[in-house]
Design brief:
The chain has 2 helices and no strands. The protein is an all-alpha fold and 75 residues long.
């Protein structure tokens, strides 16, 4: 009967230890490609800005061509 008590306690301790949260993973190591990926990310942001400005300009041109004065920012 003593084995049942000890095995129950051992199983409960093992169960609690197994269900505990694991340690967070370490941060990713720097690689030789980090400077290149940063440059690519910057280039994507610049392209996004250029595309937004081109869209604004295109809309302004379309409003001027159609004769609509609401898009005109001049006094």
């Amino acid at each position: 009967m003593g084995y049942v008590k000890y095995s129950t306690m051992a199983l409960s301790v093992l169960f609690i230890a197994a269900c505990s949260s694991p340690e967070p993973p370490p941060p990713p190591a720097k690689t030789v490609f980090d400077p290149l990926t940063r440059q690519v990310d910057r280039a994507r942001e610049v392209q996004k800005t250029v595309d937004e400005n081109a869209e604004k300009t295109r809309k302004q041109i379309e409003t001027q061509e159609s004769g609509d004065k609401s898009g005109d920012n001049r006094p």
